[in-house]
Design goal:
alpha/beta, Rossmann fold, three-stranded antiparallel sheet, 18 strands, about 30% helix
Length: about 375
């Protein structure tokens, strides 16, 4: 296993070389069973000071070929409307309206709906617990963690994604601090326009939520202790369907040259998530499938197989209906004869790390030990 130093990174990446600051501290790698020669990055904590320095020189950034402006975010409400919260009591979830409360924005294609993250956090954590998103993207998980009074650790291989996450957390905290200072809450609980409390979390509890953001590789969570996380929530690239980084970066799953390479990298990510998750803790992962030569490629099932072989037990499998598929329809409408079905869904797998070996026997039909 090779750990790339920050000094080398400055020379290695034309883009990163312009935006990294304070990278002289040596980094270590976390011991693991990775294949020799695997290139991983050590986690580096990034704070608001670095974000403010970055935002002071740049008015926008680019993630997944989408340009996002780094302008102040006006928060009109901090909780979802009834129309945004749809039923999550079955194994089919549908969110026709992507949430836009707090500092959530649907600025690029690869982010996941905040309703999904909110459901996972409410189902499998308590206030004060810690949530990990090892591919934090635009910060959706961190935002929901704050609003629900949970601590959150966000990691991403893409430096611009880290800046976008901090951008949205920064303006959310500014809004909460104004609420706290103006007394816009009664009995310590936030009151929305309707006068009803939402989420049962106070402004003080939101501001006390610990948010740590790291630039790093999800295959090497070396700054996170074993069994210290209560929930892992992740939305990885679906192989190389959408390119995440502008240039090829080691550790970027979307840059994998083949499905086999993607799954090998995903196996490393899953192993690290398993290590840091506490026994009895849950992992939620949203994945999608694709087609090659007009035939279905079940990425979701390959990923599920990887999760089960790592030691997880399957709790739920949820079908998420995809909306806003206009571009997909228009793309394939050009074909005179289309002999395949359009993919209009993704899969959310919810898994649990067993508390002990006995649970593998009890839940063997939901694990990779069905014959054990």
């Amino acid at each position: 296993m090779v750990v790339i130093s920050e000094i080398f990174l400055v020379e290695y990446s034309r883009v990163w070389g312009q935006i990294f600051v304070g990278l002289q501290e040596p980094r270590r790698s976390f011991p693991s069973s990775r294949q020799p020669g695997t290139v991983v990055f050590s986690m580096r904590k990034v704070g608001f000071d670095e974000y403010l320095e970055f935002a002071g020189t740049r008015k926008e950034l680019e993630v997944e070929s989408s340009r996002v402006k780094l302008e102040p975010i006006e928060v009109k409400r901090i909780h979802p409307s009834p129309e945004e919260l749809t039923d999550v009591s079955t194994t089919v979830w549908s969110f026709p309206k992507r949430g836009s409360w707090a500092t959530h924005r649907g600025d690029y294609r690869g982010n996941w709906p905040p309703q999904m993250v909110r459901a996972l956090i409410l189902m499998f954590t308590e206030p004060g617990d810690t949530v990990l998103d090892p591919m934090v993207g635009s910060g959706t998980t961190c935002i929901e963690a704050v609003l629900l009074g949970r601590n959150c650790v966000g990691v991403d291989i893409n430096y611009y994604a880290i800046m976008l996450t901090l951008h949205r957390i920064y303006w959310l905290r500014k809004h909460l601090e104004r609420l706290q200072g103006s007394g816009s809450h009664r009995f310590g609980t936030i009151m929305e326009e309707s006068g009803k409390s939402m989420g049962g979390v106070t402004v003080d509890e939101m501001l006390k939520a610990r948010i740590e953001v790291y630039h790093g590789d999800a295959r090497n969570l070396d700054k996170i202790q074993d069994e210290s996380i209560d929930l892992v929530a992740m939305h990885p690239p679906y192989s190389s369907i959408i390119k995440y980084s502008k240039s090829r970066v080691a550790g970027d799953l979307s840059a994998a040259r083949s499905l086999e390479e993607y799954l090998a990298m995903m196996s490393q990510v899953v192993s690290e998530s398993f290590r840091v998750l506490r026994p009895g803790g849950h992992l939620g992962i949203l994945v999608g499938d694709t087609r090659v030569h007009r035939h279905y490629v079940p990425i979701t099932y390959y990923v599920l197989d990887t999760l089960l072989k790592t030691g997880f037990i399957l709790k739920e499998e949820v079908v998420k209906i995809q909306h806003r598929m206009k571009a997909t329809r228009e793309r394939w409408a050009k074909l005179r004869e289309r002999d395949f079905l359009l993919i209009y869904h993704e899969k959310l797998f919810i898994l649990r790390k067993p508390k002990n070996e006995n649970e593998y026997k009890k839940y063997r039909h939901s694990s990779a030990r069905i014959s054990g």
